[in-house]
Automatic annotation (TrEMBL):
Residues 49-284 form the AB hydrolase-1 domain. The lineage of its organism: Bacteria, Pseudomonadati, Bacteroidota, Flavobacteriia, Flavobacteriales. This is AB hydrolase-1 domain-containing protein. It comes from the Bacteria. Coiled coil: none annotated.
Length: 299
């Protein structure tokens, strides 16, 4: 009888232990989710980790062809930022700063070892912000058609303060402008606009649909935040090699001039210019894959 009671007691203790472990695991998962509410992440592949950050209003699906190219060699963490392309928005005052902090926390929580970054447009800006904030945390990275300070294009004397004081960049007004755009005809008109940024109408329509699914307040808030954040001095702290890929700004010489000017303070950089519009991974995929493969595999 005593032995039977002891067995029942041991069984209860075993069940309680498993229950506690399960509850702790659930709480840990919820904690990680809450910390990373600033983006959604999809993980595929195995190998050295790469975090792929899409551009303004785009889904992580913008990287589909790129991930198919890389997934057999790398572990890919594909992000969709909060409020973009149907992802749940956040109410933070500085959304992009929350995204930056969220990615840093994600890397630490997942114990990713020197993950590389590939960012397009706003994602390239985010790559620079991450690298300059935590230069020891990330490995080599690729910035595709993005700049440390978009507002200084063609006028390097522009400062973040002068942009903030410009009524054109009043955040409330910009958000109101986005929210006042009618739903009817949005995708059609945006598709036409996107034809200046990508060469084929199928991708232009897809990008337009992602924009339509995006939260209008997020669209307004993030464009102002990026336009009023100057990373030109901060990038001097980046230690990892950076591949910078530019689209064609009229001529190759014009592209090289603007990019060299904006990236003056970045020491370990390589600048390449693609014969392409803004969405280089769509317009020049073979060239793009060759460039990123060469860079990622280099010592």
């Amino acid at each position: 009888m005593h032995q039977k009671r002891k067995s029942i007691k041991n069984l209860k203790q075993h069940i309680m232990k498993k229950l506690i472990i399960s509850l702790l695991a659930i709480l840990a998962a919820l904690n990680v989710f809450s910390q990373n509410k600033s983006f959604e992440a999809k993980v595929i592949g195995k190998g050295q980790p790469i975090i792929l950050i899409p551009g303004y209003s785009c889904s992580g699906d913008v990287w589909n062809e790129t991930t198919n190219h890389l997934k057999n060699r790398y572990e890919l963490h594909i992000l969709t930022l909060a409020g973009f392309a149907g992802a749940k928005p956040i109410e933070d005052e500085e959304i992009l700063k929350s995204v930056r902090n969220g990615i840093i926390q994600y890397v630490k929580d997942k114990k990713l070892k020197k993950p590389m970054l590939i960012g397009h447009s706003l994602g390239a800006f985010m790559t620079l912000w991450l690298q300059s904030t935590e230069p020891e945390l990330f490995g080599k990275s690729i910035c595709m058609d993005g700049l440390p300070f978009i507002s200084a294009v063609s006028n390097p004397e522009t400062t973040a303060e002068s942009v903030k004081n410009n009524p054109q960049y009043n955040k409330e007004a910009v958000i109101n402008n986005f929210q006042s755009i009618p739903n009817e005809g949005y995708v059609k008109n945006m598709t036409k606009a996107m034809m200046y940024q990508v060469s084929d109408s199928i991708h232009a329509k897809q990008i337009a649909e992602w924009s339509f699914k995006s939260d209008r307040k997020t669209l307004g808030s993030t464009i102002v935040e990026m336009s009023t954040t100057d990373l030109r001095k901060e990038i001097a702290s980046i230690k990892s090699p950076i591949l910078i890929i530019s689209s064609l700004w009229g001529t190759k010489e014009a592209s090289e001039k603007e990019y060299n000017l904006q990236y003056t303070e970045l020491k370990n950089k390589t600048i390449k210019v693609a014969e392409s519009k803004h969405f280089i991974m769509y317009d020049q995929p073979v060239w793009f894959y060759n460039e990123i493969d060469t860079f990622l595999q280099s010592k």
